[in-house]
Design brief:
This protein is an alpha/beta fold. The chain folds into two domains: 32-59 and 241-341, Alpha/Beta hydrolase fold, catalytic domain (Rossmann fold); 67-233 and 369-435, 3-Layer(aba) Sandwich (Rossmann fold). The chain has helices at residues 181-194, 208-219, 238-253, 270-284, 287-293, 317-329, 335-347, 382-394, 418-435, and strands at 40-42, 67-70, 74-75, 81-82, 85-92, 102-106, 132-133, 138-139, 144-148, 200-206, 224-230, 308-310, 368-374, 398-404. Helix 1 crosses helix 2, helix 3 (238-253) packs antiparallel against helix 7 (335-347) and helix 4 crosses helix 6.
């Protein structure tokens, strides 16, 4: 499809005992073929199936992130005011003299501000360095790119992992108030104002980042020239919420959960957080991608078919992959932040704030939109992006919508998708012409 075309209650757990969003809700206080007989399945040993891969003593390293502190605080939608808060962020490129070339990248659920450089904890490349950098679709030789860790996160911005501002030396933990997508965007707006930028040339992001993009335009329409929501939705479906709840309950059920005060014990709910990550990671992939990468290949297939396979050992390659995802995740992410952010995503329903009609959120907007979806994304399927595009049409907005064919699932927006990247670059070039952007 070419740009410009559009296809016309269980307990919530102790981390959410805050009153939240009073106008809408209240919370209570290698395929193996062999003609020989299949290998014997052994009785499981006493060693834990999951524990071996999980470091319960892991803690997130203390790192000094680039940040700005706002001593005037921020009022949250739940009615709680944070008397002061911190926004950790990174920038790439140079802000031009007119301050008109700024691009804000909004990160997804478990990502961070290190969009185009080495992540300081994992040592891995930036999560979107395939898109952001010199000569990339978001060209840092031309644009000044900003990415901030979201409010409630655990990479330097104020969140459950941070110390309370009362001087007690205690972490927020489960006392951290409920936050929403709008709260996250308001904190980002404080940062943009601090940087002296009146209007962002573009705001873009995928998944939870796409929700932030939509909220940006709805809340600050004159502050965004171009918006690029990617693989996202205007609200979470029941299925989205269900997957998130499985993850949350896994964390609550971890023996090291300690009512969310786990740092006092010197342990973390590693097993629960790892299971939450494993469950979520499945939704980021597609069946085709899993089959192509792993199929039914065995991880440690015995050379002799008569040898036993441990019933609860690493039988399949896909199991090993998921466990790696889980065990590496707990080294870099805080469980309470995971709870806080997934709940914020679940609460997001942009239309509900505009008389139940999503079009009302964008009426009169002059922002130019590019909506992108991917054919194999079943977490945020194309139908949800199409619904946003139709609402934008009803609002009279300038909108382009492209669905990209791929078998990579939801994570396609983070991967090597040349058509997607060409579309991003072309859209931004066109917008730069219309904005009269000079660098």
């Amino acid at each position: 499809m070419a740009p410009g075309s559009v296809n016309a209650v269980a307990p919530l757990g102790p981390s959410f005992n805050n009153i939240a969003r009073r106008d809408r809700f209240v919370l209570a206080s290698r395929s193996v073929t062999c003609d020989a007989k299949p290998p014997t399945i052994a009785i499981p040993s006493s060693s834990s199936y999951l524990n071996a891969a999980m470091d319960e003593l892991a803690t997130i390293p203390v790192i000094e992130h680039s940040h700005v502190r706002f001593d005037d605080g921020i009022m949250l939608e739940c009615g709680v005011k944070l008397d002061s808060h911190t926004v950790a962020y990174r920038t790439y490129g140079t802000l031009n003299a007119a301050r008109t070339n700024a691009v804000l990248v909004c990160h997804a659920l478990t990502l961070d501000q290190y969009v185009a450089e080495t992540q300081p904890i994992t040592g891995k490349p930036g999560w979107w360095d395939i898109v952001v950098g010199p000569g990339r679709p978001i060209d840092t030789d031309r644009f000044f790119v900003i990415c901030a860790n979201i409010l409630g996160g655990c990479m330097g911005s104020t969140g459950p992992l941070e110390l309370k501002p009362d001087g007690s030396g205690e972490r927020w933990g489960t006392d951290f108030p409920a936050v929403t997508i709008l709260d996250m965007v308001r904190a980002q707006k404080q940062l943009i104002d601090h940087l002296g930028i009146e209007r962002l040339f573009a705001v873009l992001g995928g998944s939870l980042g796409g929700m932030q993009v939509l909220q940006w335009v709805a809340s600050y329409p004159d502050a965004v020239f171009a918006a690029l929501p990617i693989a996202t939705s205007a609200y979470h479906s029941a299925q989205n919420i269900a997957f998130n709840e499985v993850g949350r309950q896994a964390i609550f059920a971890d023996p090291n959960w300690a009512d969310g005060q786990y740092w006092r014990t010197g342990r973390i709910p590693a097993q629960g957080l790892a299971v939450a990550r494993m469950c979520a990671h499945i939704t980021y992939l597609s069946e085709e991608a899993l089959t192509r990468k792993f199929g039914r290949r065995l991880q440690n297939a015995p050379k002799n078919p008569s040898e036993a396979i441990a019933l609860f050992g690493e039988m399949f390659e896909v199991e090993s992959y998921l466990r790696h995802q889980g065990s590496s995740f707990v080294q870099r992410f805080d469980a309470n932040s995971y709870l806080t952010i997934t709940r914020a995503a679940d609460y997001f329903d942009l239309a509900a704030d505009y008389q139940g009609d999503l079009a009302n959120a964008f009426r009169g907007t002059r922002t130019r939109f590019l909506l992108s979806s991917f054919t194999s994304d079943w977490l945020y399927p194309t139908a949800e992006s199409r619904a946003i595009a139709r609402a934008l049409n009803r609002a009279g907005a300038n909108v382009s919508f492209v669905e990209f064919p791929t078998d990579k699932g939801h994570d396609a927006f983070l991967l090597d998708e040349p058509d997607f990247h060409r579309t991003l670059a072309g859209f931004l070039r066109g917008c730069a012409v219309h904005a009269g952007l000079t660098v």
